[in-house]
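Homework-ish question, so no full write-ups if that breaks the rules, but can someone show me the predicted structure for this set?
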Amino acid sequence: MIAIIDYGVGNLFSLKSSFAAIGEDAAVISDPDALKDADRLLLPGVGAFEDAAEKLRKSGLDQALLEGVNQGKPLLGICLGMQMLFEKSYEYGEHSGLGLLAGEIRPIRDVIPAHYKIPHIGWNALKFERPDCPLWKYIREGDYVYFVHSYYAVPSGDCLSASAEYGADLTAAVWKDNVFGCQFHPEKSGAVGLSILRAFCEVPV
Amino acid sequence: MITKRIIPCLDVKDGRVVKGVNFAGLGDVASPVELAEYYSGAGADELVFYDITASAEGRRLFTDILTETARRVFIPLTVGGGINTTADFERVLGCGADKVSVNSGAIKNPSLVREAARLYGDQCVVLSADVKRVDGVFRVFAKGGRENTSMEAVEWIKRCVDMGAGEIVLNSIDTDGVKNGFDLEMLDAVCRAVSVPVIASGGAGSIDHFIELFKTLDGVDAGLAASIFHFGEVKIRDLKESMAKAGIPARL
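A: Not a homework solution, just the prediction itself:
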């Protein structure tokens, strides 16, 4: 069973529906104890980093999640959920993340030309930095996925697995051992997105 | 590279898709859920659902349709029509909408834009503006284009962006339903004034009109249309291929 971690941020309906569409058993879980029964973990997130990180901590789900990751369960963070995998974010101040990946979250504005619009909204092509990433099993480089974000991850390790060009190469996906993250929304990226979720469900536990 | 988006718009009344010409003379087209699935498969980048029902019964039907669509279609979904309060945002977001479009609700109560942006993020709040020339000035119209608010359009749109609107749908009443091309002059005025994505609406009659739109105005991010897609006058697949051939970034 895939646990869609519900810490009170955003709407999980589409995510749950997308797993149903590929025939996978996913449950929305808000009880830290219930995470123990899951084989795979999914960390969603929309909105502001500080608020989301605080809610995740208050719920106690952060500790249950870290425990699951330590046991080797595959984890996929999506959008803000991916950003929270990193050490810290500079979105309205400085805030700590889960620290599963080395690096930080910074404003896109700092690295792109002035005439580019913020947020980065829309369909952009994936450039594989790690073609061997298991998430790319059913898709090809250049396939389009849907982004909505104003901040981006700057990894300081070697976890970058895909980027997207938007006046600069922005982090699109990350991978280290059993920890995966997508800045884009696979649940809103049509057939390509569903293929990525299917590949995640096939990552060996 | 980010692509230019093609967005079919579905006006939904009593559970069916309708499309008016100059906002009048509604005609029945098809089941919204089936049409949404069809468009998603055909390469639509996003969908807009407008609830044009007035009755409570119609509203409940719309919510059911939305839920069923979000269960089967995995591209971004924007919902508008009858959005007057943050409770209306909650209602449609809970059914799987990704973005919510406000129009008359924001005109009646501009702080709705700020409040919603604070609660759900800028990316969730789409300002839809129906704009018409009155004595050479762009004026904002309310109530589906029936009522002149006398507000100057570019000022109004800038104000909403300052309050947190993350995207603009600019619908030109002057070109809507006429099928003679998008209102490039009006769109240019808005693109110059704001730094958020602008979606062009009103006037598309052929593939060439979309090519003209994106070639002429770099600041336009997406083109929205309804009847030409519903009646198959423009096939989304053909449109995307033509865009790519013309050097416009498109998701094929």
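Now go work out the reasoning yourself. Hint: Chain A has one domain: 2-201.
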